[in-house]
Amino acid sequence: MPKHEEKTNVMRVLDSKKVKYTSHCYIDTPTTNGEEVAKILGQNPADVFKTLVTISKSGTNYVFVIPVAKELDLKKAAKAAGEKNIEMLKSKELLPLTGYVHGGCSPIGMKKPFKTFIDKSAAEREVIIFSAGKIGYQVELTLPELAKVIDYSLEDLTA
Question: What are the residue boundaries of the YbaK/aminoacyl-tRNA synthetase-associated domain, all occurrences included (predicted)?
């Protein structure tokens, strides 16, 4: 690991559960755009996913993990969660709720577990890559390895 790379809490969680993963660092690049990050890392953008946190009318929070080049379909998200309506969490509410900042949010290691949904396209990928919980760091792993750390369901989530 290069000197400027560090272990994030996500990596520590993965290590503690003996999960096989590969870490990627793009700390020297000022971008948080997922498609740009994929290009910088030399990865297929279809393998790179973003983590989005939502809130329902009932006040329940949900986590959605979708390809970086796609947009979350809020109607499909609400249907997957069994809610009538769902909206994106306000950026200022993300850190207090999850412990993560916008651009560095990971489905692993949030302050408390939330019901998590991953876009069904992930099942077609050998691996998925997503934030390691800190801007500039990503982790790459298979869905079966991810299942050792978090509970999730695969759903049709994008437009």
Answer: 33-148
